[in-house]
Amino acid sequence: MNRSTKRCSRWTLVRCRLGFDPPHQSDTRTVYVANRFPQNGHYIPQRFADNRIISSKYTVWNFVPKNLFEQFRRIANFYFLIIFLVQLMIDTPTSPVTSGLPLFFVITVTAIKQGYEDWLRHKADNEVNGAPVFVVRSGSLVQTRSKNIRVGDIVRVAKDETFPADLVLLSSDRPDGTCHITTASLDGETNLKTHYSVPETSVCQSVSQLEALQAVVECQQPEADLYRFVGRMTVTHHGEEIVRPLGPENLLLRGARLKNTKEIFGLAVYTGMESKMALNYKCKSQKRSAVEKSMNTFLIIYLIILLSEAILSTILKYAWQAETKWDEPFYNQKTEAERNSSPILKFISDFLAFLVLYNFIIPISLYVTVEMQKFLGSFFIGWDLDLYHEESDQKAQVNTSDLNEELGQVEYVFTDKTGTLTENEMQFRECSINGTKYREVNGKLIPEGMTDDSPDGSMPPLVLHIYILQAWFFSFLFLFLLTCCMGDELLFLKAVSLCHTVQISYDQSDCLAVGGDPFSHANGFSSSPMEYYASSPDEKALVEATKRIGVAFTCSNGDTMEIKTFGKSEKYKLLHVLEFDPNRRRMSVILQTPSGGKVLFTKGAESAILPFTTSGEIEKTRLHVDEFALKGLRTLVVACRHFSPEEYIDVDKKLNSARTALQQREERLQEAFSYIEKDLQLLGATGVEDKLQDKVQETIEALRLAGIKVWVLTGDKHETAVTVSLSCGHFHRTMNILELLQQHSDNECAEQLLTLSRRDDHVIQHALVVDGASLSLALREHEKLFMEVCKNCSAVLCCRMAPLQKAKVVRLLKTSPEKPITLAIGDGANDVSMIQEAHVGIGIMGKEGRQAVRNSDYAIARFKFLAKLLLVHGHFYYIRIATLVQYFFYKNVCFITPQFLYQFFCLFSQQTLYDSVYLTLYNICFTSLPILVYSLFEQLVHPHVLQNKPGLYRDISKNSLLSFRTFLYWTVLGFCHAFVFFFGSYILMGEDTTLMGNGQMFGNWTFGTLVFTVMVITVTLKLALETHFWTWMNHFVTWGSIAFYFIFSLFYGGIIWPFLHTQDMYFVFVQLLSSGSAWFAIIIIVITCLFPDVLKKVLYRHLQPTSTQTSQVMRGGDIYRLLPVSQCWPNSVVSLCHSSCLSALLFYLLFGLYCSY
User: Fold this and answer.
1) Residue 714, annotated ligand binder?
2) In terms of one coarse class, where is the protein primarily found (predicted)?
3) Which end of the chain is more exposed for a tag (fewer CB within 10 A), N or C?
4) Backbone phi, then psi, for 633, in 5-degree steps?
5) CATH code for residues 132-280
6) 436 is in an annotated binding site
7) CATH for 390-423+691-869?
């Protein structure tokens, strides 16, 4: 080796050890058991992550700069920062405090909130990272902290403990080296799952044996897929290297919990942030509501207004100063530096000064108020008892509060079927065996056409006994003949009871424990204390059905499966499991029968089984499957294949070769599965019923009346899906059902779409049924045509859908020219992509795990709760935040427009109209609380009325309350009120400023304070006029805000504060309140502003009432019993409250007028 090569290798080693090079430079990682590395000088250990979990966002050192950077990425915050810096750099009419203090308040509040949330994450991380664990090191069991686990360590985990890292199972206390775990914290599945160790390590059950173990694990680099793991273990045993494949069944994931096993030993392969649980902490794509987009548009418009006012004021200033007497009056002579300054720089300086003067037209506190409203308002969903499911003890939960108002804008609902519209509680109903249909009655299979002769309780005792004896005799005779004949019926029942991944929960460690058989069953008439657990409800229902009939699955002990066939025990050796996957849509097991033969049992969808069958009653079974589907049953087809010894040797070789491959393992396994699952003998089919959830039909009808279109996206076959759609009200019997099914080419699909789009019978409602294969063709080149057909249909059903196809359909509607708001709802992992793609994603807390719930924006226990979530909560959230946004812009127009008008009367000298304290506190204190409380409690209509009249949802659809017309109304109203404030006060004081009885004159601060006082009262009362639902809190903050302004102004201007540099407002407010003319002006101006508003509301309500306003007028006496006095009052009471409160305020103002005289 030459010198340069040595230097390069040494430098690579140094960089690797210092951590400059990435730790993963290959597609695989090599892990040495107990970290016993090869003893040669050329080996460079790979660097892996430590076992610390870091969910926090900040550290002590980077919190301030990182948090500030993130906050100033928001345009409004950055804008106010620029304004604040301009105030510091140039001579501006207002103090930097007026912009700096609100900005500091907003930044500080947000930083404290985010810092507290991150502190909680740090606290949780420390608890996890500091948890005690036991590790095998130096020949002994050592206790350490979880964060100290390294890749290659052998970790011991005891019963009911969680796994601290991703471990490859080495051994357990069970002789076969298996263990049971639950992954509820990962995917929500509570069933027991069996994991396996390789035979060479399963015997190492002591620390000394593990210390002597020489093994190496080669596996893929970390990835987020919980259900994928590819690796192999090379064990050196007596000088011989034995290679064993490793898959998901060998990997114990961090966060899972050990059950029914005393202890296990595992090898850490993925640690810390490289564990699969941590890799699934990925952030979801940020969703933005339509209200937020409208708000940003309004901000841009107001920014244009601000720039226009600043430019206009600057131009008018120089136009005014064109005359010498105004450019340099005798009382304000320019300095030499001012005369020689650059005109361009002076123009820019004046423009920036006006920009600072008018900058309050952009409301910085709007963002804080909106965030607080969304955060606090989201609690109401969880507190709603109508959304609480008592049976499962589950309440609605909010995973993101940013989309609350979007619930009131939904136009399309995409829903899964199984577990969402149905209960996902399967009951075995019928089956087809060798071309004959059977149904289960009282634990017996009754052929089609026969009736159950079981007696009922109304029969005489003697006849009852005779019936029982007859029933027992004939059932025993039937079972005896069935057992003797060993026909296809028994083979079918054995296939169903053996082809599955069901686990059994029982106390005994062995199914044949001393002291009795854990399963006591005779002819299906006795029960067993054991309980089945399955990841699929279908599998559990089928195994329980065969148990009732007489073929019971009793034990699964490693590679042995035991069944009892009418009391006779049979043991089968489990050779291979061909796992289910969405592409094959079937699963299989290869077993060794008690007689030594090798047999394959497989079950799956009829489209995945029937094409590969070569014998059996294929056509009859296909017909029966279609009949089951028409009844709404979920169907599975069962088949088998018997292997000769030579065939099995070939099959075993192909499977082992594919499973030990590190590269393209999935592809090679698919090839092996296809080779094995062919030439099948058809045994029969099963029909399992999945009942509809409660009130599904009423919910779908309510959504339809609300103008929301419902699409059902399911993986079931189209006959089953259509039957369920008809039963749940998604399809009506009067609808004309259009079909786009079994299209095999683009041209064929295009022709069918054209045929469907040319239908002229628009009077009839249409429903569309499309399958996954046809949908793929339609989305490839005919999207517009497909969308045209869909939009002409009242309901759409997509069947045989893959998960990604569901997301594509949602994206297709979401990105259409109309840009409708979409909502997706589902309960399984196959619905996650659809839920994340839609504008609003809702997870059902069902029985297919919690992946949908974890990836959703909202989670509810039942589909029926969707109606109230949208029609009530969505309605409330939307009207609240829509009014909040409009009101904020309105009150800021009222606030800053008088400042702009004042410049026409002070030669555009940039003199401020308001005191700097008033500028600072207007949005923070004087007008903030009333709108916040309004946005939390406002209800235009009572919840019961909204649920009983779903059509009211249409009144707020398509973002109608934030349309440009509504925005223009609020903006023009703000300008009108501002003109009244300013010119009303000017008319009063323009000619005669001696408003006091002693002739004392008022100045500009008194004028500005009068305008400000009128403005605070008017904008607060304007919100009171908009309020329909009054609570004690509304009264407190509304009248309290006005009172607080008066009290604060009295204290602020009535006392000399030593820490203030100047105090222009000293005694100004006291003198203003001492003037009867000022009190008179306040009353007149407030009434002038609000009276047209009241008149408009009265006229519109009586002449052109909306359906919402009509619903507010409740008729009859019964409805009032629905309204608790503490929660809601009738309209007449609300009106009385308005009148009383306004009268009280008027009396207060008149009393002040009287006292001033």
Assistant:
1) yes
2) other
3) N
4) -90, 150
5) 2.70.150.10
6) no
7) 3.40.50.1000
